[in-house]
Write a sequence for this structure.
C-alpha cells in the first residue's frame, strides 16, 4: 500500500508544470505580422519600392512637356579689338558691349517617333556703349520639330520596357514581405527549439533530483546498489550542464529574433508551439498557375528578352546611316525699342537635314550587330532555362509540403507515445520493476521525440511560407497576395 501511494504521488508530481502567463505568449503569426510592419528588413523593402516608384515617375516625365527659361543677363565686355578698315588695313578700336538674351521654351517628346516638338519665344538686347546705341531682336513665337531618321528610338523602347520594370518592382515588394515571413519563421523556431530544450532540461533536472531522493532511501534499505545511486548522480550533473547550455542558447536565440524585429536585445519572448496546421490542399498545377500570374519572374523573363531585342536594335541603327530633320517656322523683328521689335514681325523659316553615312569602319558595325544577336540568343536560352528551374522548384516545394504535413502528424503522435512511455517508466522504476538504464533510455527517447516534433513543425512552416513566396498566393483564403491599399 505504501508503494502504491508513493507511486501516485510521484506520478502527479512529475506531470505538474509551472504555470505560464498566457498574456506573455506570442504566436508565429503575431511575430510575422510584427516583422512585416516594423522590422528594418521591411523598411529596406519599402524604401526600395519607393525608389522604383520615383524611377517610374522619371520615365513618365520624359513623355510630358517641359517648360524652361534660359538667358544671359548680362554679357558685358570692354576690350580693344582689331578692326579691319575699308582700305584693308587693321586698326585697334576700344569696344564696350553688352549682349543680353532670354528664351522661354516648351518642349514635347514624341515617344512613337523619338522626335521633339518645341515652341520658343526669344528676346535679345544689344548695347554699344561707345556709340550710345541699343538694338532689340525679338522672336515672339518659333515653332519647330527635330526628328531623327533611321536612328535608334530610345523612347519607343522605354515605352515597352519600363512598365514591365515598374510592375516587377510592385510584385517584388510583395515577395520581400513574404521573404520576411520566411526569415522570421526560421528565427522563431530557432528560439522555440531552444526554449523546448530549456524546458526539457529543467524538467529532467527536477525529475532526477526527485528520483535520487527515492533512490537514496532504497539504498539505505539495501534494495538498490551503490552503482545505481552514482549513475543517478551522474545523470543529475549532466542535466545541470544541459540546463546551463540551454539557458545560454535561449539568450542567444532571443537576441537574434529581437534584433530582426528591432526590439530591445534583452526583451523576453515566450513562444507558442504552432501545432495547429492550416487545412489546405495544394496541387502542382494550381501552384504553377498562380506563380505564373503573380510572381515577378514572368515579367522579368519578358523584360529580359525585350532588353536583348532593344540592344540589337540599337546596334543596328546607331552605327549605320543616320539622319536628322530639323525645321522651324516663326516670327521675328528687330528695332531700336522694345515695343517696336514686336510690331509687324516678319516670317522666318529654317529647314535642315543632316546625315552621316560611314563608308568604312573596319567591320565595327558588323561586330556590334553580331554581338547583339549572340546576346539575344544567349538571353533566350537563359530565360528558357530559368523558366524550367522556376517551375521545377515549385513542383518540388509542393511535393515536399505534402510530405511534411504527414511527417508532422507522425512526429506528434510519436511525441505523445514517448511521453507516456517515460511516465510509465518513471513509475515502474519507483516500484523497482525496471533498472535505471531502462529509465534513461525512456528519458532519451522522450527528449528525442519532442525535438523531432518541433523540428518537423519548423520544416513544415518554413515550407508553407516558402510556397507562399514562390506563388504569391494565400492558399488558406484562396486569394493572390497583393499590395495593401
Amino acid at each position: 500500500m505504501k508503494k502504491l501511494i508513493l507511486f501516485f504521488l510521484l506520478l502527479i508530481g512529475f506531470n505538474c508544470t509551472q504555470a505560464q502567463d498566457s498574456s506573455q505568449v506570442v504566436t508565429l503569426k503575431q511575430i510575422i505580422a510584427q516583422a512585416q510592419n516594423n522590422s528594418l528588413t521591411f523598411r529596406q523593402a519599402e524604401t526600395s519600392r519607393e525608389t522604383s516608384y520615383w524611377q517610374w515617375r522619371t520615365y513618365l516625365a520624359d513623355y510630358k512637356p517641359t517648360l524652361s527659361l534660359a538667358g544671359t543677363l548680362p554679357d558685358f565686355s570692354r576690350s580693344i579689338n582689331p578692326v579691319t578698315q575699308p582700305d584693308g588695313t587693321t586698326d585697334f578700336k576700344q569696344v564696350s558691349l553688352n549682349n543680353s538674351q532670354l528664351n522661354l521654351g516648351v518642349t514635347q517628346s514624341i515617344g512613337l517617333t523619338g522626335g521633339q516638338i518645341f515652341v520658343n519665344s526669344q528676346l535679345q538686347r544689344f548695347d554699344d556703349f561707345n556709340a550710345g546705341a541699343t538694338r532689340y531682336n525679338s522672336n515672339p513665337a518659333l515653332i519647330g520639330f527635330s526628328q531623327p531618321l533611321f536612328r535608334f528610338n530610345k523612347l519607343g523602347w522605354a515605352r515597352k520596357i519600363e512598365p514591365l520594370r515598374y510592375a516587377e518592382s510592385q510584385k517584388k515588394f510583395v515577395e520581400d514581405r513574404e521573404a520576411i515571413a520566411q526569415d522570421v519563421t526560421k528565427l522563431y523556431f530557432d528560439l522555440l527549439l531552444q526554449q523546448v530544450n530549456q524546458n526539457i532540461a529543467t524538467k529532467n533536472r527536477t525529475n532526477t533530483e526527485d528520483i535520487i531522493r527515492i533512490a537514496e532511501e532504497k539504498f539505505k534499505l539495501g534494495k538498490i546498489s551503490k552503482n545505481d545511486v552514482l549513475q543517478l548522480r551522474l545523470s543529475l550533473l549532466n542535466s545541470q550542464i544541459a540546463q546551463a547550455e540551454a539557458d545560454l542558447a535561449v539568450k542567444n536565440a532571443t537576441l537574434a529574433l529581437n534584433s530582426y524585429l528591432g526590439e530591445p536585445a534583452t526583451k523576453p519572448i515566450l513562444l507558442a508551439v504552432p501545432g495547429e496546421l492550416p487545412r489546405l490542399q495544394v496541387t502542382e498545377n494550381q501552384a504553377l498557375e498562380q506563380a505564373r500570374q503573380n510572381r515577378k519572374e514572368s515579367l522579368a523573363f519578358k523584360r529580359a528578352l525585350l532588353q536583348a531585342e532593344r540592344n540589337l536594335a540599337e546596334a543596328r541603327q546607331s552605327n549605320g546611316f543616320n539622319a536628322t530633320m530639323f525645321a522651324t517656322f516663326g516670327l521675328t523683328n528687330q528695332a531700336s525699342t522694345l515695343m517696336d521689335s514686336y510690331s509687324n514681325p516678319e516670317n522666318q523659316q529654317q529647314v535642315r537635314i543632316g546625315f552621316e553615312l560611314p563608308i568604312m569602319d573596319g567591320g565595327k558595325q558588323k561586330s556590334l550587330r553580331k554581338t547583339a544577336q549572340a546576346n539575344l540568343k544567349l538571353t533566350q536560352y537563359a530565360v528558357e532555362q530559368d523558366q524550367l528551374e522556376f517551375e521545377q522548384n515549385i513542383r518540388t516545394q509542393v511535393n515536399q509540403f505534402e510530405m511534411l504535413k504527414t511527417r508532422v502528424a507522425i512526429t506528434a503522435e510519436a511525441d505523445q507515445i514517448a511521453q507516456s512511455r517515460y511516465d510509465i517508466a518513471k513509475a515502474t522504476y519507483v516500484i523497482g520493476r525496471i533498472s535505471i538504464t531502462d529509465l534513461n533510455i525512456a528519458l532519451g527517447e522522450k527528449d528525442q521525440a519532442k525535438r523531432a516534433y518541433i523540428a518537423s513543425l519548423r520544416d513544415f512552416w518554413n515550407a508553407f511560407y516558402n510556397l507562399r513566396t514562390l506563388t504569391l498566393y494565400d492558399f488558406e483564403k484562396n486569394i493572390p497576395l497583393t499590395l495593401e491599399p
In short: The first helix runs from residue 2 to 15. The two ends are 71 Å apart (CA to CA). Confidence is low (pLDDT under 50) at residues 1-23.
